[in-house]
Amino acid sequence: MVFTILLVFIAIIVLWLMFSSAYTVRQQSVAIIERLGKFHVISNSGFHFRLPFGIDSIAAVVQLRILQKNIIVETKTKDNVFIKLAVATQYRVSEDKVKDAYYSLSNPEAQISAYIEDALRSAVPKLTLDEVFERKDEIALDVQRQVAEEMAGYGYKVVKTLLTGVEPDEEVKQSMNEINAAQRKRAAAKELAEADKIKIVTSAEAEAEKDRLRGIGIAEQRKAIVDGLADSIKELKDSNISLTEEQLMSILLTNQYLDTMNVFASKGNSTVFLPSNPQGFDDIRTQILSALKA
């Protein structure tokens, strides 16, 4: 009976030692094991045992996943503009330097922030505000290179650094907005002026084309009149009328003029002024002949 109780007691002790010595490490993590206060071993993810009674202890569990640090850095540009830079840095512990990462730095985030601030405050004052906006990616890459070189000695790897925002002070922002608004107004005025110019040129071309067509129409009309008069003179000559060509032309032109006046009056013009003596008709004939020869 006593022996049985002793076996049960021993079994309980063994089970307790097993459970108290067992531990697990999660995926993408490693555990730093210290023995009697000194570094002993690094345990990767999985199930493990350690010596009981505080001989072996888990000093820390170090994450191997990518971490991100967001910071705001205030500095001044070459043209004396105060700006705030938003920076996002992704970093992780190098798997082969876990021991250095844990024992070298107690606060890696603060160290990374300090290096980023130092890099930006060295680079940005050499650039104007416009250059900072234009070269955001170049600045971020330069900062990433400098910080990566510094943090590599502590067992950290800088994966990516992004300059996510550049914000000038309020006074400068207001001035920039006013400048942008003025530029947009100038662009709109220029577009409007171009549209007016096109409209004027198109109208002028249309007028020129109209005048050209009007000229062709007048020329064809004059030719038709002359051809008609020539045919009339030929018919009168064939009728053996004893009149000279000049007399025939005078009669025909006078008749043509009177027909035109008749058409003019038929279109709503109630008053038509005619010469009061025969000499006036001679003047009309002379003017018509001059117009046909023009």
In short:
The chain is of the alpha+beta class.
Radius of gyration: 53 Å
Strand line-up of the largest beta sheet: 3-2-5
Q: Which CATH C-level class of the largest domain is it?
A: Alpha Beta
- Number of DSSP helices? 8
Provide the helix percentage. 55-70%
User: Quick one: overall form?
Assistant: rod-shaped
**What is the level-2 CATH architecture name of the largest domain?**
2-Layer Sandwich
Which regions are unreliable across 5 or more consecutive residues at pLDDT < 50?
none
Would you kindly provide a written description of the structure presented here, covering whatever features stand out?
The strands form 3 sheets. The protein has a 3-stranded antiparallel beta sheet, with helices on one face. Helix 7 (245-266) packs across helix 8. 59% of the residues lie in helices and 22% in strands. A hairpin with a 5-residue loop joins strand 6 and strand 7 (82-93). It folds into 3 domains: 2-63, no CATH class; 67-168, Tetrahydropterin Synthase, Chain A (2-Layer Sandwich), CATH 3.30.479; 243-293. It has helices at residues 2-21, 98-104, 108-123, 129-134, 136-152, 170-238, 245-266, 278-293, and strands at 22-25, 29-35, 38-43, 46-49, 56-63, 67-76, 82-93, 156-168. The N and C termini lie far apart (151 Å). The longest helix is centred in the last third of the chain and has 69 residues, at 170-238. The chain is an alpha+beta fold.
Which tags fit this structure?
single chain; 294 residues; alpha+beta; three-stranded antiparallel β-sheet; rod-shaped
